[in-house]
Design brief:
This protein is an alpha/beta fold. The protein has two domains: 2-119 and 300-339, Medium-chain alcohol dehydrogenases, catalytic domain (Quinone Oxidoreductase, Chain A, domain 1, Alpha-Beta Complex); 123-269, Medium-chain alcohol dehydrogenases, catalytic domain (Quinone Oxidoreductase, Chain A, domain 1, Alpha-Beta Complex), CATH 3.90.180.10. It is built from eleven helices and 15 strands. The strands form three sheets. Strands 3, 4, 5, 6, 7, 14 and 15 form a seven-stranded mixed beta sheet that branches. Helix 3 (122-134) packs across helix 4 and helix 3 (122-134) crosses helix 10. The longest helix is centred in the last third of the chain and has 16 residues, at 278-293. The model is unreliable at 335-341 (pLDDT under 50).
Length: 341
């Protein structure tokens, strides 16, 4: 099979497309003929050894896929060859075939586009876990989303609306704010692409004006850096700040603020949630797929790349130059109508 490989530490330019042996399933695994793979910001981190988990090399980036089962392990009865699935994987998705534990797979429709299905788990799964499991977002609460036009931000805007929140989308350009409005944001707040101490105070004032007297109930922050403190200051009593990522660097905030505001700072680690609570994670994924099938979540893919250009997609993601999600189209779905459920 063909696979995009990380063989040395470095950026997307260090990745190579090579032919390697096909994977064989272990007793509890399935092998998937991959149709499409989602691209996420951690793909740009893991190849630089800057992610929280460093896989042994060589490995393929890519943590969410859609495809058809081609082989199953001896212990597997829930899946059979030819069935279409989506899978959550630590890495390995940017290849023509993927071996993955069967408990990370879900059956999906044969009729929906692979790129859309392949991009439902990482960002939407992270945000679902953040808003529901970690923050217990309630209907009618005010949700502020930083980086609202990126993959995590887009998922937060859409899921926030599904959960009945009033969504305030914050981003750095008119184009990105317009995109957030197109995904359902109620109000938008602009911040500069590079924030320092002075502009951080201006951003805090803009949030306060938009949110009103009682402040924001929940902040979802995948950005970090100077953007985090003004978001924290915007919280009202019993507010919750969700730390999802650090695309602008790790924030340093005055720790007297949580005390004075009676608010909480909450970490969101979807990677370890999958490992430690796989049944809850799988249930979240099923609910996300149901929302997508019902049309409650829109198709978030803005660009689709072939496997030969997957490194370019990762580069775009690392530059924070993406609206919504990117996907890698690896193969067309084989026609196997007799196996459809």
């Amino acid at each position: 099979m063909k696979a995009l490989l990380s063989k040395v530490v470095g950026g997307p330019d260090t990745l190579t497309l090579e032919t390697v042996d096909d994977p064989l399933p272990g007793p509890d695994d399935v092998v998937i003929d991959v149709e499409a793979c989602g691209v996420n910001y951690p793909d740009a981190l893991v190849i630089r050894d800057k992610y929280q988990v460093v896989p042994p090399r060589p490995f393929s980036p890519g943590a969410e896929v859609c495809g058809s089962v081609s082989a199953v392990g001896t212990n597997i009865t829930a899946f059979k060859a030819g069935e279409r699935v989506i899978a959550r994987c630590p890495w390995g998705g940017m290849a023509e075939k993927l071996k993955v534990s069967a408990d990370r797979c879900l059956l999906v429709s044969t009729d929906l586009p692979a790129a859309g299905l392949a991009t439902l788990q990482f960002t939407y799964g992270t945000v679902f876990h953040a808003l529901r499991d970690r923050a217990s977002l309630r209907e009618g609460e005010k949700l502020l989303v930083l980086g609202a036009a990126g993959g995590i931000g887009t998922a937060a805007v859409e899921l926030g609306k599904v959960f009945g929140a009033k969504v305030f989308a914050a981003s750095s350009s008119d184009e990105k704010l317009a995109f957030a409005r197109s995904r359902g944001a109620d109000e938008t707040i602009s911040y500069p692409s590079v924030v320092d101490e002075a502009s951080s105070k201006q951003f805090a004032a803009a949030i306060k004006e938009a949110a009103g007297r009682n402040g924001i109930d929940v902040v979802l922050d995948p950005v970090g850096g100077w953007y985090t403190e003004p978001a924290l200051r915007s919280l009202g009593r019993n507010g919750r700040l969700l730390i999802v990522g650090f695309t602008a660097g790790i924030a340093k905030v005055p720790m007297n603020l949580p005390l004075l505001k009676s608010c909480s700072i909450i970490g969101v680690d979807w990677y370890n949630f999958n490992i430690n609570e796989p049944k809850r994670s799988a249930n979240n994924s099923r609910r996300i797929v149901d929302m997508y099938v019902k049309g409650q979540l829109a198709h978030a893919v803005s660009s689709i790349f072939p496997l030969e250009r997957a490194a370019q997609a990762i580069h775009q993601m690392s530059e924070r130059a993406v609206l919504g999600k990117l996907a890698i189209q690896i193969a067309d779905r084989p026609v196997r109508p007799e196996t459809a459920r």
